[in-house]
Design a protein that fits this description.
It is built from one helix and eleven strands, in the order αβββββββββββ. It has 202 residues and is mostly beta strands. The chain has two domains: 30 residues; 161 residues, no CATH class. The strands form two sheets. A seven-stranded antiparallel beta sheet has the order 5-6-7-8-9-10-11, with no helix packed on it. Strands 1-2-3-4 form a four-stranded antiparallel beta sheet, with no helix packed on it. A hairpin with an 8-residue loop joins strand 2 and strand 3. This is PLAT domain-containing protein. Keywords: Signal.
């Protein structure tokens, strides 16, 4: 009888221990600064889901965390994805290290597609993800960069495989160029494992 009472007491304390442990982990991570938020129906259930990007400003590299929450029909939200890899750290070499001109700008939702937009020193790039096949998959990548000679651009539709490259020159003696090719990627990259610019294509 005494053992049963002790067991009940121990079990009753488990939820409290879990809450304390979870709070301790959150305190260590310090992703407590919200830098961008977006709302929109991502899984076609006519409910407004949410994407939140937070930053750990206390860490030397100031990393970002991207989280996606699905709205529940009865109210509230359920987290679907949490990743600290989908957005490059603000200071990859530390706050006192070399700056590469990269900077996260914002996350938006349009027509059920998540758009992660980032600035460069002279240009920008963006990655687009859509919920399909039970995962958020990369369906589009584009970039625009400028230099003293002109501008270069890339548009890659991963769904169709169409990869477009364009170069425009300020010098009229140089000829602008546009190239197109088909690059099929299967399966498509999943947001939960995605790292930007981990290859030459996106």
């Amino acid at each position: 009888m005494k053992r049963s009472v002790k067991l009940i007491k121990i079990l009753s304390l488990l939820p409290l221990c879990f809450v304390i442990f979870s709070a301790s982990l959150r305190a260590q991570e310090n992703f407590n600064v919200i830098v961008s938020m977006a709302k929109g129906d991502l899984n076609k259930d006519l409910l407004a889901d949410s994407v939140v990007v937070t930053q750990d400003t206390t860490a030397d590299t100031s990393p970002y965390r991207l989280e996606i929450y699905f709205a529940k029909k009865g109210g509230g939200f359920q987290r679907n994805i949490q990743t600290d890899k989908a957005i490059n750290e603000q200071f990859p070499n530390g706050k006192d290290g070399y700056r590469d001109g990269y900077g996260f700008s914002k996350v938006t939702i349009k027509a059920g597609v998540i758009d992660v937009f980032c600035q460069l020193l002279r240009g920008h790039f963006r990655h687009k993800f859509r919920y399909q096949n039970g995962n958020f998959e990369l369906i589009g990548y584009s970039s625009r960069t400028s230099n003293p000679l002109g501008m270069s651009a890339v548009d890659f539709n991963l769904s169709t495989g169409v990869y477009l490259q364009a170069e425009e020159y300020d010098d009229s003696d140089k000829k602008n160029s546009k190239r197109s090719k088909i690059i099929k990627i299967s399966p498509l990259p999943k947001l939960k494992d995605f790292v930007p610019y981990s290859n030459d294509l996106y």
